[in-house]
Amino acid sequence: MICARECPSWCITIDSHTEPVAGLPAGARDRTRNVLDRFAIDWSLCMYCGICVEECPYDALEWVGDLTPPGSRAGSLVEEMVQPPS
Amino acid sequence: MRWVDWYGDGSLYVLDVALACCTLEFDAASPVLAGPLPTLHDRAQVAVVISGTVTDRLAPAVAAIVDGCEQLAGQRPTVISFGACASSGGPYWDSYAVTKGVDQLVAVDAYVPGCPPPPEALSAVLDDLVGG
Amino acid sequence: MISWAGEIVIKVLSENWLAAVEALQADGFHYFDWLGCVDEIGRSDHFRIVLVVRNIADGAEPEVLSCLLPRDDPKIDSVRGVFAGAAWHEREAAELFGVEFVGGERRRLLLNPEFEGTPLRKDEVLAARTGMNWPGAEEPEEMGDPGKTGASSSRRRMVPPGVPDPAVWGDRDASQAAADPADVAESAIGGRVRRRRT
Question: Does A13 sit within 8 Å of C160, measured CB to CB?
């Protein structure tokens, strides 16, 4: 969430939900964990500032040297980076 | 208008609509200096590259340039939106003065992401779309 | 005379503006550097016109003139008769802030003829972002209860930088009085996540 908040271009879309943690010992307090549903970057808006990479407290984002491929239609530059669980 | 004979053999002529910083990457990618458009032979192709932010004030001029290219070349050019600003307004999408992408004005054949894209990105797109 | 970022700033009343600029030019300050406008809303209810000239023959240090104009009727003499180059700077301040330069050029410089508004005033909201859903507002939803977002249901929803709080601008309660322009300018800062110091 921090990456999406800090992005100056608003190019990151991130969706998640919380799930209860299973398998806790008896009598333990209910706990939940976050599950990532969707992480997408709209490369037509991204200005490659790197703020998202710097801000993530878990170092979940990193720079990669590949060229972002071009698109042929409007909207084709949105890259979905999370595969839904099969 | 001055065109770049991209492969030096008359197969592809490229026009840069130099609006902002992305045009420096166009200059870095361009193999030769620009010159006037000669009479095109049958297999020659033409491409127009929009490099940089399109402001509302300049938008009619950009549209007129693309139309003018079509008349000059006798065929509709391949339009390449080069960089984030040309593709969507980029980081300036919220500005009161910026057009959110050149595709609001003309049909675009390729959107090249980057801020700015490296020169290799332009060469690759031209190679794929038009060249060789 | 006040010291401001290391420079001497001469405060001038608007009725003395033209005379002050002419006096500087007569004094050897022949180089017009720039003229700009600052919206002082939140600090005082004024626009501040700033003009910088230099004496190239004598060190070229900047000489800064500053004049406060009331926000609801900002009028000041044009100095384009003294420095022709000031005309463009004045046109820019006029169309972006709504300042009237008496005797100045009326043509627009940067904006489309049809453009309405004075976009650089701090109480003019950049509407594009207020209309969009901010991706940064997403919080994890609780499973099985899509209407309730996790921890943030008890917290006020954050607004992004540049977007005023809905209570102040936009979707507000119409029965409340209109927002004070200073409130609009202030609230456009938004609620930011504190940066972690690494």
Answer: no
